[in-house]
Amino acid sequence: MNNIPLKYPFNQFAYGADYNPEQWPEEVWLEDVKLMREAGVNAVSLAIFSWAKLEPRPGEYDFGWLDRIMDLLHTNGVSVLLATATASPPPWFAKLHPESLPVSETGVRMEIGSRQHYSPSSLAYKQAAASLAGKLAERYAKHPAVIMWHINNEYACHIRASYDEESATAFRVWLQRRYGSLEKLNDTWGTAFWSQQYADWEEIQPPRQAPTYPNPCQCLDFKRFNSDALLELCRAEIDAVKKHNPALPVTTNFMGISAPGLDQFAWARNLDVTSWDSYPDPAKDEVAYNASSHDLTRSTGGGKPFILLEQVTSQVNWRNVNMLKQPGVMRTYSWQAVARGADAVMAFQWRASRAGAEKFHGALVPHVGTADSRVWREVCDLGRELRACHEITGSRIVARVGMMFDWSNWWAVELPSKPREISHTTIVTQYHEALFDNNIPVDFVPMEGDLLRYQVLVLPLTYMLSETTAKNIKQFVANGGTLIVTWFSGIVDECDRIWLGGYPALLREVLGIRVEEWQPLPEGVHNEIKFIADGKTSICDFWSEAVDAEGAEVKAVFTKDFFAGRPALTCNRYGKGRAWYLATRLPGEVNRELFGMICREAGVQPLLEAPKGVEVSLRERDSSRYLFIINHTDANHEISLGGHHGADLLDGQQMVAGTVNLKPYDVKVLKLAV
Ligand code: GLA
């Protein structure tokens, strides 16, 4: 069924799953490859948790079974993203190196028996993992089935930090490199407070359980250090495999915008392609939330097509209640990934396990088998649809709106002892949703990113801001860009020290405002804002600020609390551009309207007008343009194509013009006429 072999950069959609043949007798493998062909599966991620099978005893290897399955897959036209098999060290490893086991904040050493039981700073683990990766590369880096390395698996999924002695030593080395002198460290961390001043490097500890809040900069640096330590582990594996074939690309699977462990912008610079594992909760409406992770994965990868490396066909096993995806929803989520820039649609896992911790996790081949199986039918249908659209691979999203996103900022916002508890990504994704609901494409932009390619730049809750970034932002507006800054932004420098003299200090001039103080709002407590232009009001919650306009035009005011009548929304002209400031959190539909209005004024139009729940996205390559319209709702919708017309790639290339009728959970992929 797959005549053309899959290559990277992808010449067709990669479609498949994690494949764990070691869980099954070899007779089952023959059925597996037959079924893969039936479903149009052309790629599998292999050997992710195979360390114990590959190296059953220290230094004793068994590659026979892997040779056999690799050859079988190759003969059947299935390409392999070969894992380095290092995600779960075998029991013998912990026995040999008990110091490699991670230790919690409270001093509890974790045990074997699940997975990812290694400290980010364990030298023994690093050497053993790099050695296994090297052995695999020596043997398979030129195997015709292998198209990519899958390094480790979901770094920092379970273990983001370890508080053991080896980590403490490595942390001190990292700090010495960062600060050079204790004097600098003491000054930056603000150790004059609570008599925390260090007189010797050896006195510094990881922020272990303490009587109350540890030093915030110590905590922040420990998070930065752990992301770097894990990256060193990943780098060791990358170096080991690249030695044997530098041309073979590498990826490692990220976990989207809900995963705080790794600074993905920094990590992605070490990968050939980014990928992530997508598990929206079917019990909630997480369509927009999931889209934000696709956008993040694409953006951290520099805009290149990315890999959806895992999703589930039906239901997972790790929530309190594991609802399944309704019929058609695996399809809509798969097309969402493609619509937002993925060139691969993969899942966890190929065949549902018979035993072990994940036996109730959905798979392409369910426990009931393939006969009369809804899941299997949907799997085969999706394979056919993806095949009909292979020409889309390689095309890209062109976004005119950028949203600043930064891991240090995220970590710092969520440290304790703030005006209120804040989940940073909950807030960021609410502003992302305002653009998503308008069907306006958006990229996430790192602090040091190139701003000049955007017409609109959003700073959602950008608490931490350096002088360099602030300077670039001002330049962006002066050149004609439109800036939107939300509440509690520009408060501290990159070391979590307050910028004094009125918030948001470095942005006061460009925004034409001063924030004097803030009033965080507990759950259930609201303020209200009134728009000056039309007198309309809206409730607001979570946070409010006492703002002075210092040149900015006031667009809305608060109506309650002692600062009633003072600005809640302002707009300032600066150079050739405009800078908006929003001093509170508004409901979703008001955000949608506001962000839509600001974007239109800045010359950025929605791709199409569509109701909430209907997602529209566009991918482009040279003169080819592919429009995706995805109905994530169980209702019928009629959407105007706004003058576009094109061939429906999922319906025999029928020409479509005027309007399209969407059935519940319908998907349209139109190749637009030039
Ligand atoms: C993660 C892991 C997989 C599997 C799935 C289950 O994404 O990478 O190994 O455990 O979760 O949802």
Describe the 3D structure.
It is a single chain. With 674 residues, this protein is of the alpha/beta class. Among the domains are: 201 residues, Rossmann fold, CATH 3.40.50; 59 residues, Golgi alpha-mannosidase II (Immunoglobulin-like, Sandwich), CATH 2.60.40.1180. The protein has 17 helices and 25 strands. The protein has a nine-stranded parallel sheet with strand order 5-4-3-2-1-9-8-7-6, with helices on one face. The longest helix is centred in the middle third of the chain and has 27 residues. The radius of gyration is 26 Å and the shape is globular. The two termini are 32 Å apart. Bound molecules: alpha-D-galactopyranose. The site of alpha-D-galactopyranose (GLA) has 9 residues, from loops.
Gyration radius, to the nearest Å?
26 Å
Q: What name is given to the CATH topology of one domain?
A: Rossmann fold
SS field, number of helical segments:
17
Q: Please, what is the oligomeric state?
A: single chain
Envelope shape:
globular
Quickly give the structural class: alpha/beta
**CATH class descriptor of one domain:** Alpha Beta
User: Average pLDDT across residues?
Assistant: 98
- Amount of beta strand: 15-25%
Instruction: Name the bound molecules.
Output: alpha-D-galactopyranose
State the helical fraction.
25-40%
Tally of extended strands?
Answer: 25
Assigned CATH superfamily of one domain = Class I glutamine amidotransferase (GATase) domain
